[in-house]
User: What shape does this take?
Amino acid sequence: MNDNLKTKLGSRKFWAFAASVAMSALVLFGTDADTITKVVALVGAIGSCVVYMFAEASVDAAREKRDHKISQRNPVIQTKDGIDYHDLVLRKPNI
Assistant: This one.
């Protein structure tokens, strides 16, 4: 998906704009107030879901990127004895 489109769909301002356009169009065509309220509520609910999904995807991507960087910096190397690299570094020598 285009990054600009993702940004727009993830914006609360965009969904407020969409709700106001829908409300204005319904008022223009003489729709009753109850229907207008339901349509605006539906647009707001859909917008909230979309914003939440993009926010969670962004958080997950940042977490994955961070975890990948950490694993690249601190590789865990398994030895024959089942001791990993971190244990070898942290253990004090027996002298």
Notes: Helices lie at 3-9, 12-28, 33-73, 85-90.
